[in-house]
Write a structure and sequence with these properties.
Number of strands: 5
Distance between the termini: 45 Å
Radius of gyration: 16 Å
Strand content: 25-35%
Helix content: 10-25%
Largest sheet: 5 strands, antiparallel
Shape: globular
Strand order of the largest sheet: 1-2-3-4-5
Order of helices and strands: EEEEHHEH
Structural class: alpha+beta
Number of helices: 3
């Protein structure tokens, strides 16, 4: 079973925290919205590592190690800097079809 962490945002939503696209010095931290019907509400932020692997272009971070290294405070900071994965819906539907 994969490791999992959760984060409760200030508005009360309980997000599942996931790590994806690990590189040598960074990884994408994804906040998955609990409704599960659409990923349009999911958010992401970049975790930047300052460990020894960050100085080697041939090394790669481990998803599990990044998740283990994330403290509750750091997850909160990443959430505050996060952005939606998907673009917001257009306010002008007629423009979407042209």
């Amino acid at each position: 079973m994969p490791k999992m962490k959760t984060f409760r945002s200030p508005d009360g939503v309980l997000w599942v925290v996931d790590v994806d696209l690990p590189g040598s010095s960074n990884a994408m931290v994804i906040f998955r919205h609990p409704n599960g019907t659409s990923n349009r509400l999911d958010r992401y932020a970049w975790y930047l590592s300052h460990g020894p692997e960050a100085r080697s272009v041939t090394s790669k971070l481990s998803r599990d190690k990044v998740l283990d290294a994330l403290t509750d405070d750091e997850i909160g900071r990443l959430y505050r800097r996060s952005m939606r994965i998907s673009r917001p819906d257009s306010l002008l539907p007629a423009q979407a079809s042209s």
